Amino acid sequence: MAYFQLNKYSFRHLILGILLTAIFILTLLVALISSLVAFDEMKSGLYQQGIQLTRNLAQSSLKPLIDDMPSSAEVMLDTLLKMEQITKISIIHTSHIALIEHQEFDHIYHVFPSVTLKEPFNVIETPDSWYFTALVSTRHTPEHQANNTDALTTRAIGYINLALSKKGIKDSRRHIFMRNLMMSGIVGFALLFLMYLALRNLTRPLEKLSRLMEQGQRGDYPASANIYGTREIVEMSNTFNNMVHAIREREQNLSLTLDSIIDAVIATDANGLITRMNPVAESLTGWTLANARGASIKDIFPVMNITTREKIKNPLAKVLTQGETIYLSNHTTLISKDNTEFQITSSASPIRNKDNEILGMVLVFNNVSEQYQLRQAANKNKRDMQAVMDNSPAVIYVKDIN
Protein backbone atom coordinates (compact mmCIF):
# COMPACT_ATOMS: atom_id res chain seq x y z
CA MET A 1 0.00 0.00 0.00
CA ALA A 2 2.90 2.31 0.70
CA TYR A 3 3.97 1.82 -2.92
CA PHE A 4 0.68 3.20 -4.21
CA GLN A 5 0.65 6.05 -1.71
CA LEU A 6 4.17 7.05 -2.71
CA ASN A 7 3.23 7.16 -6.37
CA LYS A 8 -0.09 8.82 -5.65
CA TYR A 9 1.23 11.69 -3.60
CA SER A 10 4.71 12.18 -5.04
CA PHE A 11 4.23 11.96 -8.81
CA ARG A 12 2.37 15.25 -9.21
CA HIS A 13 4.60 16.98 -6.64
CA LEU A 14 7.72 15.66 -8.34
CA ILE A 15 6.60 16.92 -11.75
CA LEU A 16 5.56 20.28 -10.27
CA GLY A 17 8.92 20.57 -8.53
CA ILE A 18 10.76 19.88 -11.77
CA LEU A 19 8.57 22.36 -13.67
CA LEU A 20 8.97 25.01 -10.97
CA THR A 21 12.76 24.59 -10.98
CA ALA A 22 12.87 24.65 -14.77
CA ILE A 23 10.69 27.76 -14.99
CA PHE A 24 12.73 29.49 -12.26
CA ILE A 25 15.98 28.80 -14.12
CA LEU A 26 14.39 29.72 -17.45
CA THR A 27 13.05 32.97 -15.96
CA LEU A 28 16.50 33.93 -14.71
CA LEU A 29 18.09 33.06 -18.05
CA VAL A 30 15.49 34.99 -20.05
CA ALA A 31 15.79 38.00 -17.74
CA LEU A 32 19.59 37.88 -17.86
CA ILE A 33 19.85 37.39 -21.62
CA SER A 34 17.22 40.02 -22.40
CA SER A 35 18.95 42.44 -20.03
CA LEU A 36 22.31 41.83 -21.68
CA VAL A 37 20.77 42.32 -25.12
CA ALA A 38 19.04 45.51 -23.97
CA PHE A 39 22.26 46.74 -22.36
CA ASP A 40 24.25 46.06 -25.53
CA GLU A 41 21.63 47.87 -27.59
CA MET A 42 21.72 50.86 -25.23
CA LYS A 43 25.50 50.83 -25.25
CA SER A 44 25.65 50.59 -29.03
CA GLY A 45 23.04 53.33 -29.37
CA LEU A 46 24.94 55.66 -27.04
CA TYR A 47 28.19 54.95 -28.88
CA GLN A 48 26.65 55.74 -32.26
CA GLN A 49 25.06 58.84 -30.78
CA GLY A 50 28.47 59.98 -29.52
CA ILE A 51 29.99 59.52 -32.97
CA GLN A 52 27.17 61.47 -34.60
CA LEU A 53 27.28 64.28 -32.03
CA THR A 54 31.04 64.68 -32.35
CA ARG A 55 30.92 64.83 -36.14
CA ASN A 56 27.97 67.22 -36.16
CA LEU A 57 29.74 69.44 -33.64
CA ALA A 58 32.89 69.40 -35.77
CA GLN A 59 30.92 70.59 -38.79
CA SER A 60 29.11 73.27 -36.77
CA SER A 61 32.32 74.53 -35.12
CA LEU A 62 34.09 75.51 -38.34
CA LYS A 63 32.82 79.12 -38.46
CA PRO A 64 33.21 79.84 -34.69
CA LEU A 65 36.83 78.60 -34.88
CA ILE A 66 37.62 80.63 -37.97
CA ASP A 67 35.96 83.77 -36.56
CA ASP A 68 37.09 82.99 -33.00
CA MET A 69 33.55 83.52 -31.69
CA PRO A 70 32.93 81.63 -28.40
CA SER A 71 29.40 83.00 -28.14
CA SER A 72 28.34 81.14 -31.26
CA ALA A 73 29.73 77.91 -29.87
CA GLU A 74 27.98 78.38 -26.52
CA VAL A 75 24.57 78.02 -28.16
CA MET A 76 25.56 74.62 -29.49
CA LEU A 77 27.02 73.55 -26.15
CA ASP A 78 23.87 74.54 -24.27
CA THR A 79 21.87 72.20 -26.47
CA LEU A 80 24.32 69.31 -26.11
CA LEU A 81 24.74 69.67 -22.36
CA LYS A 82 21.12 68.68 -21.87
CA MET A 83 22.39 65.12 -22.30
CA GLU A 84 23.41 63.88 -18.85
CA GLN A 85 25.86 61.37 -20.35
CA ILE A 86 28.15 64.14 -21.65
CA THR A 87 30.90 64.81 -19.11
CA LYS A 88 33.10 67.10 -21.24
CA ILE A 89 32.85 69.11 -24.44
CA SER A 90 35.63 71.30 -25.74
CA ILE A 91 36.29 73.16 -28.98
CA ILE A 92 40.02 73.79 -29.26
CA HIS A 93 42.21 75.65 -31.73
CA THR A 94 45.15 73.83 -33.22
CA SER A 95 47.25 76.06 -31.00
CA HIS A 96 45.67 74.14 -28.06
CA ILE A 97 43.81 77.23 -26.94
CA ALA A 98 40.22 76.37 -26.04
CA LEU A 99 37.56 78.34 -27.83
CA ILE A 100 35.02 77.05 -25.36
CA GLU A 101 35.10 74.22 -22.88
CA HIS A 102 32.74 72.51 -20.45
CA GLN A 103 33.66 69.85 -17.91
CA GLU A 104 31.05 68.42 -15.57
CA PHE A 105 33.51 67.46 -12.84
CA ASP A 106 36.82 69.19 -12.43
CA HIS A 107 38.49 66.08 -11.05
CA ILE A 108 37.69 63.99 -14.15
CA TYR A 109 40.83 63.13 -16.03
CA HIS A 110 40.14 62.77 -19.75
CA VAL A 111 42.52 61.18 -22.19
CA PHE A 112 41.39 62.00 -25.68
CA PRO A 113 42.84 60.31 -28.75
CA SER A 114 44.97 62.18 -31.23
CA VAL A 115 43.77 62.94 -34.75
CA THR A 116 45.50 63.80 -37.98
CA LEU A 117 44.47 64.93 -41.42
CA LYS A 118 44.72 61.33 -42.55
CA GLU A 119 42.71 60.12 -39.56
CA PRO A 120 40.32 62.97 -38.74
CA PHE A 121 38.19 61.01 -36.28
CA ASN A 122 39.19 58.77 -33.40
CA VAL A 123 37.70 57.28 -30.24
CA ILE A 124 39.05 55.67 -27.08
CA GLU A 125 36.86 53.45 -24.88
CA THR A 126 37.48 52.89 -21.17
CA PRO A 127 35.37 50.87 -18.72
CA ASP A 128 33.53 54.06 -17.72
CA SER A 129 33.47 56.36 -20.77
CA TRP A 130 34.04 56.98 -24.45
CA TYR A 131 36.37 59.76 -25.57
CA PHE A 132 35.66 61.09 -29.06
CA THR A 133 37.92 63.44 -30.99
CA ALA A 134 37.12 64.94 -34.39
CA LEU A 135 39.34 67.18 -36.47
CA VAL A 136 37.87 70.48 -37.68
CA SER A 137 39.41 71.36 -41.02
CA THR A 138 38.88 73.61 -44.02
CA ARG A 139 39.87 73.33 -47.63
CA HIS A 140 41.42 76.27 -49.50
CA THR A 141 43.47 77.12 -52.58
CA PRO A 142 46.85 78.86 -52.23
CA GLU A 143 46.88 82.43 -53.57
CA HIS A 144 49.50 81.72 -56.25
CA GLN A 145 47.28 78.89 -57.58
CA ALA A 146 43.93 80.64 -57.33
CA ASN A 147 42.83 79.51 -60.78
CA ASN A 148 43.87 75.88 -60.25
CA THR A 149 40.89 73.93 -58.89
CA ASP A 150 43.04 70.86 -58.41
CA ALA A 151 45.29 72.71 -55.98
CA LEU A 152 42.81 72.55 -53.04
CA THR A 153 44.50 71.66 -49.76
CA THR A 154 43.12 70.70 -46.37
CA ARG A 155 44.11 72.69 -43.32
CA ALA A 156 43.32 71.80 -39.68
CA ILE A 157 41.97 74.70 -37.68
CA GLY A 158 40.94 72.88 -34.50
CA TYR A 159 39.41 69.78 -33.05
CA ILE A 160 36.45 68.69 -30.96
CA ASN A 161 36.69 66.66 -27.75
CA LEU A 162 33.56 64.99 -26.41
CA ALA A 163 33.37 62.55 -23.48
CA LEU A 164 30.34 60.31 -22.90
CA SER A 165 29.89 58.50 -19.58
CA LYS A 166 28.58 54.91 -19.38
CA LYS A 167 27.35 55.45 -15.85
CA GLY A 168 23.75 55.99 -16.91
CA ILE A 169 23.42 52.78 -18.87
CA LYS A 170 25.31 50.85 -16.18
CA ASP A 171 22.88 52.10 -13.56
CA SER A 172 19.93 51.23 -15.74
CA ARG A 173 21.22 47.70 -16.35
CA ARG A 174 20.05 46.58 -12.90
CA HIS A 175 16.64 48.19 -13.41
CA ILE A 176 16.33 46.53 -16.80
CA PHE A 177 17.23 43.17 -15.28
CA MET A 178 14.70 43.53 -12.46
CA ARG A 179 12.00 44.65 -14.89
CA ASN A 180 12.69 41.76 -17.24
CA LEU A 181 12.88 39.37 -14.31
CA MET A 182 9.49 40.50 -13.07
CA MET A 183 7.93 40.22 -16.51
CA SER A 184 9.53 36.82 -17.13
CA GLY A 185 8.41 35.67 -13.69
CA ILE A 186 4.81 36.68 -14.37
CA VAL A 187 4.83 34.84 -17.69
CA GLY A 188 6.64 31.88 -16.13
CA PHE A 189 4.21 31.48 -13.25
CA ALA A 190 1.29 31.86 -15.63
CA LEU A 191 2.76 29.00 -17.65
CA LEU A 192 3.32 27.02 -14.45
CA PHE A 193 -0.31 27.49 -13.47
CA LEU A 194 -1.47 26.31 -16.90
CA MET A 195 0.88 23.34 -16.66
CA TYR A 196 -0.46 22.56 -13.19
CA LEU A 197 -4.02 22.51 -14.52
CA ALA A 198 -2.96 20.26 -17.39
CA LEU A 199 -0.99 18.02 -15.02
CA ARG A 200 -3.90 17.79 -12.61
CA ASN A 201 -6.22 16.72 -15.41
CA LEU A 202 -3.63 14.15 -16.44
CA THR A 203 -2.90 12.75 -12.98
CA ARG A 204 -6.45 12.79 -11.60
CA PRO A 205 -7.42 9.59 -13.48
CA LEU A 206 -4.14 8.00 -12.35
CA GLU A 207 -4.90 8.90 -8.74
CA LYS A 208 -8.37 7.40 -9.05
CA LEU A 209 -6.86 4.23 -10.51
CA SER A 210 -4.32 4.19 -7.66
CA ARG A 211 -7.12 4.42 -5.06
CA LEU A 212 -8.94 1.54 -6.75
CA MET A 213 -5.74 -0.50 -6.62
CA GLU A 214 -5.38 0.23 -2.91
CA GLN A 215 -8.99 -0.82 -2.46
CA GLY A 216 -8.21 -4.04 -4.33
CA GLN A 217 -5.20 -4.67 -2.10
CA ARG A 218 -7.57 -4.74 0.86
CA GLY A 219 -9.63 -7.38 -0.96
CA ASP A 220 -12.47 -5.00 -1.74
CA TYR A 221 -12.43 -5.05 -5.51
CA PRO A 222 -14.56 -2.40 -7.27
CA ALA A 223 -17.19 -3.42 -9.79
CA SER A 224 -15.40 -1.46 -12.52
CA ALA A 225 -13.10 1.52 -13.00
CA ASN A 226 -14.86 4.01 -15.26
CA ILE A 227 -11.88 6.29 -15.87
CA TYR A 228 -11.69 8.70 -18.78
CA GLY A 229 -8.67 10.52 -20.13
CA THR A 230 -6.04 9.97 -22.75
CA ARG A 231 -5.97 6.82 -24.84
CA GLU A 232 -3.22 5.34 -22.66
CA ILE A 233 -5.19 6.00 -19.45
CA VAL A 234 -8.35 4.46 -20.93
CA GLU A 235 -6.33 1.39 -21.92
CA MET A 236 -4.95 1.16 -18.37
CA SER A 237 -8.51 1.41 -17.02
CA ASN A 238 -9.71 -1.37 -19.33
CA THR A 239 -6.75 -3.55 -18.36
CA PHE A 240 -7.52 -2.95 -14.69
CA ASN A 241 -11.18 -3.86 -15.23
CA ASN A 242 -10.19 -7.08 -16.98
CA MET A 243 -7.77 -7.90 -14.19
CA VAL A 244 -10.42 -7.26 -11.52
CA HIS A 245 -12.91 -9.42 -13.42
CA ALA A 246 -10.39 -12.28 -13.62
CA ILE A 247 -9.53 -11.95 -9.93
CA ARG A 248 -13.21 -11.89 -8.98
CA GLU A 249 -13.82 -15.09 -10.92
CA ARG A 250 -10.82 -16.75 -9.33
CA GLU A 251 -11.88 -15.54 -5.89
CA GLN A 252 -15.38 -16.87 -6.46
CA ASN A 253 -14.10 -20.25 -7.60
CA LEU A 254 -11.74 -20.43 -4.65
CA SER A 255 -14.50 -19.45 -2.23
CA LEU A 256 -16.81 -22.11 -3.65
CA THR A 257 -14.05 -24.67 -3.28
CA LEU A 258 -13.31 -23.68 0.31
CA ASP A 259 -17.00 -23.57 1.22
CA SER A 260 -17.49 -27.11 -0.08
CA ILE A 261 -14.70 -28.54 2.09
CA ILE A 262 -16.07 -30.30 5.18
CA ASP A 263 -12.95 -29.46 7.18
CA ALA A 264 -12.31 -26.07 8.75
CA VAL A 265 -9.78 -24.07 6.72
CA ILE A 266 -8.01 -20.82 7.62
CA ALA A 267 -5.42 -19.07 5.43
CA THR A 268 -3.01 -16.35 6.57
CA ASP A 269 -0.39 -14.11 5.03
CA ALA A 270 3.33 -14.22 5.84
CA ASN A 271 2.72 -12.24 9.04
CA GLY A 272 0.12 -14.67 10.35
CA LEU A 273 -2.82 -12.35 9.61
CA ILE A 274 -6.10 -13.93 8.52
CA THR A 275 -6.90 -13.68 4.81
CA ARG A 276 -9.51 -16.47 4.35
CA MET A 277 -11.85 -18.67 6.35
CA ASN A 278 -14.48 -21.12 5.22
CA PRO A 279 -17.89 -21.45 6.94
CA VAL A 280 -16.78 -24.49 8.98
CA ALA A 281 -13.88 -22.47 10.42
CA GLU A 282 -16.23 -19.58 11.14
CA SER A 283 -18.56 -21.94 13.01
CA LEU A 284 -15.82 -23.46 15.16
CA THR A 285 -13.90 -20.27 15.96
CA GLY A 286 -17.00 -18.09 16.39
CA TRP A 287 -15.47 -15.46 14.10
CA THR A 288 -16.83 -14.37 10.74
CA LEU A 289 -14.37 -13.74 7.93
CA ALA A 290 -15.40 -10.08 7.81
CA ASN A 291 -14.43 -9.63 11.47
CA ALA A 292 -11.41 -11.92 11.43
CA ARG A 293 -9.76 -10.61 8.24
CA GLY A 294 -6.49 -8.93 9.12
CA ALA A 295 -6.47 -10.29 12.70
CA SER A 296 -3.67 -12.50 14.04
CA ILE A 297 -4.09 -16.26 13.90
CA LYS A 298 -3.10 -16.34 17.59
CA ASP A 299 -6.25 -14.38 18.48
CA ILE A 300 -8.61 -16.31 16.20
CA PHE A 301 -7.23 -19.79 16.93
CA PRO A 302 -6.47 -19.99 20.68
CA VAL A 303 -5.83 -23.59 21.78
CA MET A 304 -4.98 -25.41 25.00
CA ASN A 305 -3.93 -28.85 26.13
CA ILE A 306 -7.04 -30.71 27.24
CA THR A 307 -5.14 -32.68 29.87
CA THR A 308 -3.21 -29.86 31.56
CA ARG A 309 -5.73 -27.12 30.66
CA GLU A 310 -2.79 -24.87 29.82
CA LYS A 311 -2.91 -22.64 26.78
CA ILE A 312 -0.50 -23.47 23.98
CA LYS A 313 1.37 -20.32 23.06
CA ASN A 314 1.63 -19.64 19.33
CA PRO A 315 1.76 -23.27 18.22
CA LEU A 316 1.89 -22.31 14.53
CA ALA A 317 4.91 -19.99 14.66
CA LYS A 318 7.31 -22.52 13.15
CA VAL A 319 5.16 -22.80 10.05
CA LEU A 320 5.91 -19.19 9.09
CA THR A 321 9.40 -18.83 10.55
CA GLN A 322 10.89 -22.21 9.61
CA GLY A 323 8.52 -23.49 6.95
CA GLU A 324 7.65 -26.63 8.92
CA THR A 325 4.37 -28.52 8.73
CA ILE A 326 2.81 -28.72 12.20
CA TYR A 327 0.38 -31.37 13.46
CA LEU A 328 -1.68 -30.88 16.62
CA SER A 329 -3.01 -34.07 18.26
CA ASN A 330 -6.56 -34.72 19.38
CA HIS A 331 -5.55 -33.70 22.89
CA THR A 332 -5.86 -30.12 21.66
CA THR A 333 -8.86 -27.99 22.57
CA LEU A 334 -9.96 -24.96 20.54
CA ILE A 335 -11.53 -22.14 22.54
CA SER A 336 -14.08 -20.30 20.39
CA LYS A 337 -15.00 -16.64 20.63
CA ASP A 338 -17.88 -17.45 23.03
CA ASN A 339 -15.56 -19.72 25.10
CA THR A 340 -17.08 -22.92 23.72
CA GLU A 341 -14.49 -25.69 23.68
CA PHE A 342 -13.96 -28.08 20.79
CA GLN A 343 -11.59 -31.00 20.72
CA ILE A 344 -9.77 -30.82 17.41
CA THR A 345 -7.08 -32.36 15.30
CA SER A 346 -5.23 -29.96 13.02
CA SER A 347 -2.34 -29.48 10.67
CA ALA A 348 -0.73 -26.34 9.26
CA SER A 349 1.49 -26.06 6.20
CA PRO A 350 3.34 -23.10 4.65
CA ILE A 351 2.27 -21.50 1.36
CA ARG A 352 5.28 -20.98 -0.90
CA ASN A 353 5.80 -19.25 -4.23
CA LYS A 354 7.90 -20.51 -7.12
CA ASP A 355 11.01 -19.05 -5.45
CA ASN A 356 10.27 -21.10 -2.31
CA GLU A 357 9.48 -17.95 -0.34
CA ILE A 358 6.85 -18.29 2.39
CA LEU A 359 3.77 -16.24 1.54
CA GLY A 360 1.56 -17.51 4.35
CA MET A 361 0.07 -20.74 5.65
CA VAL A 362 -3.02 -22.93 5.49
CA LEU A 363 -4.50 -24.34 8.69
CA VAL A 364 -6.87 -27.31 8.44
CA PHE A 365 -8.66 -28.63 11.55
CA ASN A 366 -11.54 -30.95 12.42
CA ASN A 367 -14.00 -31.09 15.27
CA VAL A 368 -13.45 -34.47 16.96
CA SER A 369 -15.33 -33.62 20.14
CA GLU A 370 -17.89 -36.41 19.65
CA GLN A 371 -15.27 -39.03 18.87
CA TYR A 372 -13.24 -37.82 21.83
CA GLN A 373 -16.22 -38.09 24.15
CA LEU A 374 -17.05 -41.61 22.86
CA ARG A 375 -13.46 -42.65 23.32
CA GLN A 376 -13.40 -41.18 26.80
CA ALA A 377 -16.65 -42.99 27.64
CA ALA A 378 -15.28 -46.28 26.30
CA ASN A 379 -12.12 -45.85 28.32
CA LYS A 380 -14.18 -45.08 31.41
CA ASN A 381 -16.32 -48.23 30.89
CA LYS A 382 -13.19 -50.27 30.47
CA ARG A 383 -11.73 -48.88 33.66
CA ASP A 384 -14.98 -49.48 35.53
CA MET A 385 -15.18 -53.08 34.28
CA GLN A 386 -11.61 -53.68 35.26
CA ALA A 387 -12.28 -52.32 38.72
CA VAL A 388 -15.28 -54.64 39.14
CA MET A 389 -13.27 -57.64 38.06
CA ASP A 390 -10.36 -56.75 40.28
CA ASN A 391 -12.58 -56.39 43.35
CA SER A 392 -14.99 -59.34 42.78
CA PRO A 393 -14.50 -62.47 45.12
CA ALA A 394 -15.86 -64.82 42.44
CA VAL A 395 -14.09 -66.07 39.42
CA ILE A 396 -15.19 -64.18 36.33
CA TYR A 397 -14.48 -65.32 32.84
CA VAL A 398 -14.77 -63.11 29.83
CA LYS A 399 -15.26 -65.02 26.61
CA ASP A 400 -15.89 -63.70 23.14
CA ILE A 401 -18.72 -65.02 21.00
CA ASN A 402 -16.38 -67.21 19.02
Automatic annotation (TrEMBL):
Residue span(s) of domain HAMP: 200-252
Domain PAS: 250-323
Transmembrane domains' residue ranges: 14-39, 176-199
Any Pfam family: HAMP
GO biological process, one term: regulation of DNA-templated transcription
PAC domain boundaries: 328-380
Provenance organism: hydrothermal vent metagenome
CDD domains: HAMP (cd06225), PAS (cd00130)
Cross-referenced InterPro entries: Biofilm_reg_signaling, HAMP_dom, Histidine_kinase_BarA_N, PAS, PAS-assoc_C, PAS-like_dom_sf, PAS_fold
UniProt keywords, alphabetically: Membrane, Transmembrane, Transmembrane helix
GO cellular component, one term: membrane
Keyword Transmembrane helix applies: yes
Protein name per the record: Uncharacterized protein
